[in-house]
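debug: dumping io for the single-chain case to check the tokenizer round-trip. Nothing else runs in this session.
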Amino acid sequence: MSSTRNPASISSAEGVAWLASAGAYPRSTRTLWEERPTAPVVLPCGTAFDVINAPAIFGRRMLDRLWDEGPGSGPAAAYRGRILLFSAPGTAQRLPSLVEWEEWSSSRSGHSGAIPPLLCHGTGDAVTVPPLGTDPVSAPAARPESRWLVAPDTRQPWLPGPEILLWAAVRAARAAVSAAVRISIFPPADQDAKV
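debug: decoded output
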């Protein structure tokens, strides 16, 4: 990923304001971040954003598909071995049925490539978002377990909906199967050999 998609921290006041707007008390959240920018914060889902929570490797594959072949992504973070994809409100409710339909349809047509379980956080759920910044004094070279991969930088960031995330999940699953099929411990056969 390029550096424009991989900021170490949120430097935009608009991105901070958007995240804080998800909580019941946005000014209190911003005050907390001003005092402790390296503190993660728990925010509710369902109004400003939903979050699709994927296993780390699969989530990175989804993120790569969104950026390399699709429209890009909204904010995204790594948190405790998972990837958090911030999405449009309502996505958490709709995506599971789309994934179920896709897997049923794929199994009937003979396509392989299962999508791993995705945790969908929407109305009534809350997620821990990474800190706004990093502390260069305490760990200058360490990779924190909670960090922004794509930090919010505007007051109204573009957020993918369920169809776009389904598209990315299907492409990531098929790419994983395709890569697994190509891996071999044997060298390629000489096609011109007379045996």
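debug: round-trip ok. The first strand starts at residue 41 and ends at 44.
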